[in-house]
Amino acid sequence: xxxxxxxxLAITIMRPAAAATVAMWFVARHVSPALASRxxxxxxxxxxxxFALEAVRYPGFRMGFxxxxxxxxMGVLLLDRFALGPSLWSNVAGxxxxxxxxxxxx
Length: 106
Description:
Blueprint: H1 6-31, H2 33-62, H3 70-78, H4 88-99, H5 102-105
């Protein structure tokens, strides 16, 4: 069968995983408010750390210190536009993919 594309993985894995994460947070909010508070704090810390990383990464990419723009590549792969190249929508779609790991890194 082989490897799946990013487009296929978004439909079969990423959307259900995001829904499960939100559902688990809602359950934790009712079962243990302290646990839900820690999860929310960790998600916020990861998101803030991602913004700090992007503040360094993007100027570095623009000045030529980095070979590629990862959010743009992820958007092209996510929308299955590899042969067509990047577009406004692929750039918009790729940004949450690279920063979407932020809540998990908190």
